[in-house]
Amino acid sequence: MTTGVAAVMEALPSLDWTTDPALVRQKSRDFFWYSPVLKRQLNRVTGEAVVAPRDEDELRAILAAAHAHDVPVTPRGGGTGNYGQAMPLRGGIVLDMLRMNRILHAEAALVRAEAGIRMIDLDAQCRRDVGGELRIHPSTLRTATLGGFIAGGSGGVGSITWGGLRAPGNILGLRVMTMEAEPRVLELRGADIQQANHAYGTNGIITALEMPLAPAHEWIDVVVAFATLSAACRFADALARRDDITKKLACVVPAPLPQNHFRHWGAKVPAGMAVACLMVAAPDLARLDALVSDHTGQEIHRERTEDAAVPCYEHSWNHTTLQVLKTDKTITYLQSLFPAPDHLSLIEKLERRFGDEVLFHVEAVRFAGQICAIGLQIVRFTTEERLDEIMRIHEEAGSPIFNPHTFLLEEGGMKLVDQAQLDFKRRSDPKGLLNPGKMAAWDDPDWKPGAVPPLELYETDREAPPELLD
Fold this sequence. Notes:
- This protein is an alpha+beta fold.
- It contains 16 helices and 20 strands.
- The chain folds into three domains: 3-97 and 420-465, 2-Layer Sandwich (Uridine Diphospho-n-acetylenolpyruvylglucosamine Reductase, domain 2), CATH 3.30.43; 103-216, Uridine Diphospho-n-acetylenolpyruvylglucosamine Reductase, domain 3; 219-397, FAD-linked oxidase, cap domain/gating helix (Vanillyl-alcohol Oxidase, Chain A, domain 3, 3-Layer(aba) Sandwich), CATH 3.40.462.
- It is 30% helix and 21% strand.
- A seven-stranded antiparallel β-sheet has the order 14-11-13-12-18-19-16. Strands 5, 6, 7, 8, 9 and 10 form a six-stranded antiparallel β-sheet that branches.
- The radius of gyration is 22 Å and the shape is globular.
- The relative contact order is 0.14.
- Residues 454-470 have low confidence and may be disordered.
- Keywords: FAD, Flavoprotein.
């Protein structure tokens, strides 16, 4: 353990510290291993100690002491990210936010809660107490935290109706603590929210959020099979455009993924058929049935979402990749946008180009006010060079890649420096100690897309011992 971490622990002995190497390593990891690139780069990364603050007073004391001793601090929620967002690239302290988990206020249209609350608990209490539910949640609803979703996510279940987390109104307020000699608490609202939204905790620790609620519905999982991927995509697109059908999910998965990897109901899917995995409000099922008939779909599964052992949302978004990885370690994935209005034809074009090397799992979404699709393609991995080539082919065809094979904030999105987030970091984290190594433009003001600094800049000499590695 470095002297800096030891000094912080000595200054704050009453806090909840963990130093056991195996437990610290466990809290230093997320689902980065979805990517063979990140697994190669980050498998040895670990922090030195974990601390779990119970309130803002304890958090302020931690950040002030770490600032005084120049100790990196990496925040962590449920650890469900896929890009190393919560991994301490330069060692130091892992900040476990799970104890800051109270609901502070709830009413029919909004809820205010601490960042460490599990989203499934937040959603359940809102449904019970005020008849509302979260507009958007990740496929990791059962394990993700609210703060982790906002810091590391961008959309998910519900984006078919509400768009992504950057869409106006999908986050109402964000409370963040700075890392200075005397940490400040800032309340961001309106456009200022974007300074800390999807910033991986690099420029402030999110302590609480105010989120809009939609009216709570009884959701029904419905799985419909189609003869081709194109037919399933056309159906999902049509459903997304139907204002008279309340929906939360339209996820299209091509053959043979459901048949081979979806154990809950995959055996019921006829060979060679793609599926659309849906969440639809119970009162609208008759209209859904008519739409399925119009598109010559074949329903193969239906149950209440809350009764499902493995609900449809756990077959969607990044969970689709996880379901496949459980039984096939040779695959990885991509994330891309198929922009409107030509998203369906673009999917068909790229499907023909790649054959079974790239299987086009897509999500119907609303993006910038238009219905289009997000791709979370399943890729048969061979080499990193071929993976780069596949991404290049997508982008040349008009499908921008949100690269899931990088831990850099800028590379994972639209490959631009977010100047507002960078400027906010200069004010809120002047020493650059918050989740260091993730914001490329902080370490290299001349950074350009593709100019990834040498990994040695990010590696720590406090690696896990060999017996703790995969």
